[in-house]
Amino acid sequence: MDRRAELRDFLRSRRARVQPQDVGLPAASRRRVPGLRREELALLAGVSVDYYVRLEQGRSGNVSPQVLDSVAAALRLSAAERQHLYALVHAETEGPKPPSQQVRPGLHHVLESLEHAPAYVVGRRLQVLAWNRMARVLIADFPRLPEEQRNLARLTFLDETSRHRYVNWQRKADDTVAFLRVDAGRHPDDEELADLIDELSTRSEDFRRMWADHTIRDETHGDKPLYHPLVGPLALKFETFRIPDSPDQALTVYTAAPGSPAEEALRRLAVTPDAESWDQPVVP
Fold first, then answer.
1. Do residues 120 and 136 make contact, with C-beta atoms less than 8 angstroms apart?
2. Which residue from 104, 110, 203 is spatially nearest to 153, judged by alpha carbons?
3. Helices (H), 76-122
4. Predicted model pTM
5. Which of 35, 115, 144, 159 is the most buried (most CB within 10 A)?
6. Alpha carbons 28 and 175: distance in angstroms, whole number
7. Contact present, 251 and 119 (Cβ < 8 Å)
8. CA torsion, ordered 187, 155, 178, 247, to nearest 10 deg
9. DSSP state letter for 100
10. SS3 call for 167
């Protein structure tokens, strides 16, 4: 992936989002582009126009944290967007291709202990590395899928059943694209990630449109309603935990409110033979 192009497009998309009147500047009647001009952003960030242009083009060399903080404040970036900006500016060429990620035995034991809660571990590129039976029941029967298809991005955009499985598919799709953007910022030279993005852009119009928005979000908790044909919709929440000694891995657990219909439905599915064989993904 072209880090300079990523940085340029990200900053341009964020400039377009901020209106001059929102930051105390006079609104011009005629503008060729939406949002802030480069010279307006440079004024707000306290840098020269030439310096900001070089920053946006990825030609500024070593940029101080103070300058990046000023640019981030002027653009009203969120915490996740600010981290993404830092990653793009300071990204370094990666070394040799890392080996396949291994999930340590302790995490496998954690997954197995969650009898009524769907849970899985993802690594880089949203590749699913480990899972429990309830994840097989509600997300995908991962052992039956080829390894390259055990990927949440492919399942979200290329699986014919995903729009039924995720009750709020649009939100799931937005979160998926946003996570891949974060991953791309952290690992701009990951060729497998670039191949995945190219594949999804070619095969999914929805992904292509969302990717062009440069949305950055790293959600760690929230609502994630799912659907299973045996029990119908389930009102679930999720919590995602980064693995401290493996920062590219994350454990996600889905839970239901105590005493809720969703909790009872999860318990029923946990003891239903072959529940994971229903409504399985079809990724051509």
1. no
2. 203
3. 79-90, 105-113
4. 0.80
5. 159
6. 35
7. yes
8. -40
9. P
10. coil
